[in-house]
Structure formats: C-alpha cells, structure tokens
Amino acid sequence: MAAPVVPDPEMRYRVLLTLSQEISRTLDLQEILDHLIAALHTVVAYDAAGVFVLNRTVPLGRDTGTDLIAGMASVGCADRPRPHDPMLRSGRGIVGHVIRTGERVLAPDVRLDPRYIEGRAGTLSELAVPIVSNGVVIGALNVESGRLDAFTPADAGWLEAFAVAAALSIEKAILHRQVLEKQRIDQQLSLAREVQTSLLPARPPAVPGYDLAGVNLPSWEIGGDYFDFIPLDDGRLGLVVADVAGKGVAAALIMATFRAALRAELRRGGDIPDLVTELDRVLLESMDSSRFVTAVYGILEPEAGLFGYVNCGHNPPMLLGHTGRRDLLRSMRPALGLRGRWPAHPGTASINVGDVLVLYTDGVVELNDEAEQEFGTDRLEAVVREHAARSAQEIVAAVLDRTRVHARRFEFDDDFTLVVVKRTGP
Fold first, then answer.
1. 70: three-class secondary structure by DSSP
2. Alpha-carbon distance 363 to 417, whole Å?
3. At what angle do helices 376-386 and 392-407 cross, to 10 degrees?
4. What is the DSSP letter of 274?
5. To 5 degrees, how large is the angle CA 289–CA 293–CA 294?
6. Residue 192 carries which DSSP code?
7. Is residue 230 a contact partner of residue 424, using CB atoms and an 8 Å limit?
8. Cys bridge to 85: 67, 81, 139, 153, which one at CB 3.0-4.6 A?
9. What was the pLDDT predicted at 75?
C-alpha cells in the first residue's frame, strides 16, 4: 500500500483553528464528534479513525450491563461496533487502555501488542490519545492504518493537539446532554406525579355524621403509598390505606396495579376475604419476590357505626375513643404478594360518636429525629387527642406539623400517608 500524502504543518494549524471555531458553535455531542473526525484526515494520514466519549455513570473496568462509551464517531470502518463489543462495554483494547490510564499508545505493529482487540480487519498499526478535561479523561481519539509503523511521534503530538482543542467543547456538550436528560426525566416524573395524584381522592366524600380527611406525601416525586375513600352500595364507604415495599417509580407502578385490582374486585361485589384473596393473586403475578404490599381495607357502615376490615401486615390503625380508650386494628394476615396462602379473617370495630379512627403508613410513625428517635404511635395518639375537638382536616394538619417539628425538616425520608375518620353525630 502506498503511503498517503501528509499535509504540511501550516495546513495542519489552519485545520486545527477551523475545527476549534466549528465545534465551539454547537452543544450537540454527536455533531462535535463528527466535526472532529471529518477534520482529522487533513492532519494525520490514516485508514480508519474514531473518537470515543466516556459514559461517566459506568465504573471503569467493570461490566455493569451498560456501555462504557456514551458517544462515538468513526470513519473507515465497514460496520459500527458490534453489540456487547468488549471495548464499548468494558473498556478493553488499546482505546480502553488509553481511557483507563490517560496515556497515549503508539503501536507500530498491533499484532505484537497484547492490549489490541481487533475491531477492523486489516489494521496493522494504531495510535490513540486521551481526551482530557480538568485533569479527567473523558474520552479517546484513535487512528488506525493498514501499514506497519504508519504513525510517528509527531503524529501523536498533532492528535493530542486535536484532543486538547476538542476537550472543552466535548465537556460542554456532555454537561448539556446531562441537563437535557435530567429535564426529560423531571418532566416524566412530574407527569407521573400528576397521574398518581389523579388516582387519589381529590376530596373526601360527604358522609352524614362523619368528618373525613387524608393526605399523601411521597418522599420522592412519586411514591408507593395509597389511600382511598370508595363509595359503595347502601351508603357504605370503603376505606383503604396501603404501602408498597420500596419507593419511586417501581413502587408507584405496583400501587397503581393494586388500586386497579381493588376497584375491579369491588365492582364484582364480593366479600372482604374474597377481595383480599384476589388482590393477593394479582400482586403475586405482577411483582417479583422482593416486593410486597401492606394494606388495611375496610367497609364503614355509617348508621351502625361499624367498620369491618382486614389488616394485611400493615401498621395497626388506631381507634381512639372519646372516653380515653385505644383499640388497635391489628394484622389479620401477612402482607399481600408474599409466597404462600393465608386466609383473611375480617375484624369489626365499633365507632361511636366522638371517636376518631386513624389509619397511616410507617412513614408517619417511623420518622426519626436527630437522635434517631421515632415519632411513634404514642406521639401520634397524643397529637390526635390534643386536637380531637377540631375537624378531621385540622387533625391531619396538626399531625403533619408535629412530625416536621419532630424531624426538624420539611421533607420526609419515606412516603407519608394519613387518613382520619371522625364520627361527629348519629
């Protein structure tokens, strides 16, 4: 193969200046890489070239299932790198060595270099240099040739000059891409929060003789807690508070499944044990073994003042009597979605005039202060009793305020859900 004509130094400087001007005008990473590759052939003679930008979310030297290389441009290669390419995935080969060490590599005969991994048939020599920004390697610039000993130390110097010229623009483009990605994720999470909020009751229903209120505050943008007031036949009211093990998107999706299954079963009109059995089946089919849902579901019969319920591994709701009694509606069976079969034995509680029923998730009572002391059920009871003469909404607000004072922060570490049912009359 005849040696290609190499441009003179003056031409190289002009190309370098033009490149710097072009790539400074854009924040698009791929456009910058394409400009770099397009200009490179006028400075260093090669048969194939590539520029590779590091994925900063992947640890060097580890195969995490995500490619180590976040962006690339190439010329002279018949095909783009294969899926699971060892260089793109885990940083192997000469380019991977340059990225890991920050050292340039000049290989006059790649057949003798143990670091070489074939990416293009016919390559005999290779030159690769790091792209460095603020002392950190962010990528690599690589050229290959079908001739032995095709590259000189002077070529390496020019390649490094190109890498220096491109580093700042590449860094800016990477940061710009990260900002756009964060904005995209934030928009999706905001939309998901709107959807999840729409699944919660906008306001409690009007039930003669009762005052109801509820609040749901996810610790992240979306969460795995759920509560609902569900009007049923004959003036009855379904009440549910539930909590998915875990947080974030996965927990929110499971909770949406739980809500849909619950309402579907309610339309069928079965009794509480049958409803719980069916919910358990649906969740077993929808979740992996590391997930489960704790829940309290019950039906309030307003005139009789009766609350029939099943507690599935959930924090026991408190029924606080105006005479000072405290009844805990304890667990009747384990959480939903666990392997195994457990019968659901419903319980019944009587709600008298002046009584307050409090349903909550663990984010309310397990909230720690600076000394790692939990807010706890005793403090929860004390706040409710202190404000028992007020409306249900005012009781909810008082608990919310007192937990924030306890934790000395506005945001919570776990999803916070609280429902108050106060009987005000016959």
1. strand
2. 7
3. 140
4. H
5. 135
6. H
7. no
8. 81
9. 67
In whole angstroms, how far apart are CA 19 and each of 165, 190, 277?
A: 8, 40, 67
What would the two tokens of residue 127 be? 């030159």
Query: 301's torsion region: left (phi>0), alpha (psi -120 to 50) or beta?
Result: beta
Give the separation between CA 384 and CA 398, rounded to whole angstroms.
8
Q: Give the whole-angstrom CA distance, residue 291 versus residue 254.
A: 9
Which is higher by pLDDT, 195 or 73? 195
Rounded to whole angstroms, what are the CA distances from 346 to 310, 332, 351?
A: 5, 7, 16
Helix (H) or strand (E) holding 216, with range, is: strand 210-217
Alpha-carbon separation of residue 210 from 234, 325, 392, 405, 411 (angstroms): 16, 19, 9, 29, 30
**Quick one: pLDDT at residue 329?**
93
Mean pLDDT is lowest, of 108-117, 130-139, 187-196, 271-280, for 187-196
Q: Copy the structure tokens of residue 125.
A: 């020599």
| Rounded (5°) CA angle 63-66-72 | 110
Residue position matching structure tokens 């390559």: 123
d(CA 99, CA 91): 8
Average pLDDT, the chain: 82
DSSP state of 235: G
Task: Give the integer Cα–Cα distance in Å for 128 and 159.
Answer: 8
Q: What is the pLDDT of residue 369?
A: 84
CA 371 to chain centre: 29
CA gyration radius, the chain: 32
CA distances from 304 to 299, 352, 423 (A): 12, 9, 11
Q: Where are the alpha helices (DSSP H) in 269-391?
A: 272-286, 362-365, 376-386
Say how many C-beta atoms besides its own lie within 10 A of residue 118's C-beta: 10
- Tell the residue number behind the tokens 């049912």, with chain if given: 421
Query: Has residue 168 got a pLDDT over 50?
Result: yes
Q: Please give the Cα distance from 176 to 32 (Å, whole number).
A: 13
Q: What is the rounded distance in angstroms from the CA atom of residue 237 to the CA atom of residue 232? A: 5
Other beta carbons less than 10 A from residue 240's beta carbon: 21
Q: Residue 260: CB partners within 8 Å, gap ≥ 6?
A: none
Taking alpha carbons only, the member of 322, 309, 324, 319 closest to residue 425 is 322
Sequence-separated (6 or more) residues with CB below 8 Å from residue 84: none
Stated as kind and residue range, the H or E segment containing 157 is helix 153-199
Q: Looking at per-residue confidence, does 228 or 15 come out higher?
A: 228
- Helix or strand (DSSP H, E) at 105: strand 105-107
**Paired residues of 347 in beta bridges:** 309
